[in-house]
C-alpha cells in the first residue's frame, strides 16, 4: 500500500521559488529563510522532511531541518 503525501502544494511552492528567499514560520515560532530545499519521505511518511539551503549552499544562510507538518505559515513577499 502506498502512503498518500499530504504536502504536495508545499513542496510545489518551494520548488517554484527555488533561488528566491521564502520565509517559513514553524509552529514552534521559529522563522526560517529558505532559498532552496532538499526533501524526501521515509517509508510510511505522509509529510516530507526538508533540509534548507544546501543545494546549492547559500552563503550566510543557515541550514535547517524540519517536516512540512511543522510549518505554520509560508510568507511570500511579506516581511
- Helix content class: 10-25%
Report the mean per-residue pLDDT as an integer. Answer: 92
Q: Looking at CATH, which topology would you report?
A: SH3 type barrels
Question: What is the number of helices?
Answer: 1
Order of helices and strands: HEEEEEE
Strand content: 25-35%
- How many angstroms separate the termini? 42 Å
Give the gist of this structure:
The chain is mainly beta. It has a single domain (8-75), classed as SH3 type barrels. The protein is built from 1 helix and 6 strands.
Architecture blueprint of SSEs:
Blueprint: H1 8-16, E1 22-26, E2 31-34, E3 37-40, E4 49-52, E5 65-67, E6 71-75
Antiparallel strand pairs: 1-2, 1-6, 3-4, 4-5
Can you characterise this structure?
By secondary structure, this protein is mostly beta strands. It has one domain: SH3 type barrels (Roll), CATH 2.30.30. Helix content is 11%, strand content 32%. It contains 1 helix and 6 strands, in the order αββββββ. It has one helix at residues 8-16; strands at 22-26, 31-34, 37-40, 49-52, 65-67, 71-75. A 3-stranded antiparallel sheet has the order 2-1-6, with no helix packed on it. The chain has a 3-stranded antiparallel sheet with strand order 3-4-5, covered by helices on one side. The protein is globular. The protein starts with 7 loop residues before the first helix and ends with a strand. The mean pLDDT is 92.
